[in-house]
Amino acid sequence: ERKKLIEDVLTTVGLYEVRNRKVGGFSRGMKQRLGIAQALLKNPELLIFDEPTAGLDPEGARAFRELVVKLSKEGKTIMLSTHLLFEVGPLCSSIGIINRGRLIVQGKVRELIEKLMAEEGYKIRVKGKGDVQSLASAIMQLSDVNKVEREDDAVIVRAKRDVRAEISKLALSYGVEISTLQVEEPTLEDLFMRYYRMEEVEHA
Fold first, then answer.
1. Helices and strands, number each (H, E), in the chain
2. CA–CA distance, 84 with 66 (Å, rounded to integer)
């Protein structure tokens, strides 16, 4: 039974095929997965990782992220400490931001992003063919639109709410064929910087 458990755990972390190889020949990423395998032998409900992909090559980092997703689907709770915000989005359902040793915000990723959009407004990217300049001027007259600016071949609309339906109607009336009409949501980096700056202002 113990042997079966070890084999199952090695399979979970992707090391079963190299189970007879000496650990000294393992890469850093493989050693990390071996450490996770050791933890899994005790069937923990919670796993805590501190900067887990630091020092790993891209392949090792990707393998780790895939393993975290797999463990999460198996019902494990994963706590991840990292400065690499691009890793957080695909892996985490909830986040906490710490500054000066203090937890300054926590919550579900989706809810925090929606809250930020509600507070700071929507950024809508518009691309199309036709009289885009006149369309941009008309969009500026819509209620709750704060700013309209050009960015390369796109029009960027900043508004207090989602005004895409109104933009579509205006585009039709101005004969503009819309190819892109999308809300660009804040990134986790935007979220981090918002609360980080607020905290810095409070301590200034």
1. 8, 8
2. 16
The closest of 109, 59, 55 to 86, measured between CA atoms, is 109
Threshold 0.85, pTM exceeds: no
Cα torsion 155, 156, 162, 168 to 10°: value is: 0
Delineate the domains of the chain, giving CATH numbers in brackets: 2-83 (3.40.50.300), 121-183 (3.30.70.100)
HSE (side-chain half, CA atoms, 13 Å) at 87: 22
pLDDT score, position 204: 61
Q: Is 68 left (phi over 0), alpha (psi -120 to 50) or beta?
A: alpha
Tell me how far CA of residue 155 lies from CA of 22, 41, 74, 116, in angstroms.
58, 55, 44, 22
